Amino acid sequence: MGSKIRLGILGGGGDSLIGVLHRVALSMFDRYELVGGVFNPKWEENIGFAEQIGISTGRVYKDFETLISEEVKLPKAERMEVISVLTPNFLHYPMAKKLLENGFHVICEKPLTTTYEEALDLKKTKDLSNSIFAVTYTYTGYPMIRQMRKMIEEGELGEIQKVDVQYFQGWINPIIHDAEKRAATWRLQPEKSGISCCIGDIGTHAFDMIEFVTGLKVKQVLSDLNYVYQDNQMDVDGTVLIRFSENVKGVIRASQIATGEENSFIVKIYGKKAGLKWNQENPNYVQYLQEGKALTVLKPGHAYNSALSLDGTKLPPGHPEGIFDAMGNIYKGVAKAIKGETYDAAEYPSLEEGMRGMNFIEQTVASHIEGNIWKELD
Ligand SMILES: NC(=O)c1ccc[n+]([C@@H]2O[C@H](COP(=O)([O-])OP(=O)(O)OC[C@H]3O[C@@H](n4cnc5c(N)ncnc54)[C@H](O)[C@@H]3O)[C@@H](O)[C@H]2O)c1
What we know:
This protein folds into 2 domains: 5-139, NAD(P)-binding Rossmann-like Domain (Rossmann fold), CATH 3.40.50; 142-311 and 351-369, 2-Layer Sandwich (Dihydrodipicolinate Reductase, domain 2), CATH 3.30.360. Helix content is 35%, strand content 21%. The protein contains 13 helices and 14 strands. It has a 9-stranded mixed sheet with strand order 13-12-11-10-6-9-8-7-14. A 5-stranded parallel sheet has the order 2-1-3-4-5, sandwiched between helices. Helix 1 (19-27) packs across helix 12 (323-338) and helix 4 runs parallel beside helix 5 (116-127). The model has no long low-confidence stretch (mean pLDDT 97). Nicotinamide-adenine-dinucleotide (NAD) binds next to strand 1.
């Protein structure tokens, strides 16, 4: 295993939602050491947060450009090796691009960028580098999601014929009806968030999940989005019909105005032989539905699970693991890649998956704007 990987963080300050998830995940398998970063654009908050979490302030920088220019001056054995980009969406592209150009590995939050064009450009930059690039579609790190992928890969469901994914949240409901609150929410501002709120923020998780578990590629989308108010530029709800082919279809139902819902991400996949159902709010149970047989419930940590699923389970069965562990599994996969160890391609979502996500977001919004028509994905 060798020495710990030196990691820096951009964003993810004390005021953020996602920072704590990454900090817990990076320390989970003792593979990384957090050595510095830029946690906040305001210097006092930035340095104050570093002191609060007990890391040396010597490598806390005022902005990402300074982080890069100072870190590359350090001997290779001291320099940060990988940087996690946890800022609002519009900063992902400029930060990730410059990091790649300067030889850093990157772990980037989703959505990868704010446009598909930026994502394609990032791919070009990455292909010219020797860097590892991960996009944190966190839910792919759950052991039972990994189990679903392996069962489908091994043909236990037979040919896939129907996919239904729901991702419902309610947190935008009290915001959308209040213009002041709307203006204070970066996810509802195109210049910070990109062209979509609901589809970009959570629809993209649903899309990635479908391709991750089925191994199939979505070919076409047709969407009906809801902006609720005419002066609101960003979708907060949407239904997207998806086609893998003429005979294999599905639907993504995403909403951030599903009043009272928390993080209701439900994945249902049906094949010719069997079906699988999983619910993010209860992630350690997968329902296995088979024609003419009693319902089977699969759980993590048992020998009947795949090696990939078992690799993502740390404790014996019956000890619930959750979202922190899912992100920890992704960080573990990235550590294996950085250290040149063998790993399963499913252990972390790559830049290609991030790029597919941007293609999906753009075509889904275009479908709605152009009158709810079918749009092709690349
Ligand atoms: N994988 C997931 O399931 C998941 C969940 C939530 C959020 N996210 C993604 O994580 C990203 C951040 O979301 P969030 O909810 O944590 O946002 P947030 O607004 O809660 O936090 C953003 C953080 O970035 C910092 N920041 C802003 N500008 C910066 C700059 N120029 N330099 C350094 N730091 C800066 C802020 O100070 C804050 O600490 C988004 O891209 C979002 O889509 C992913």
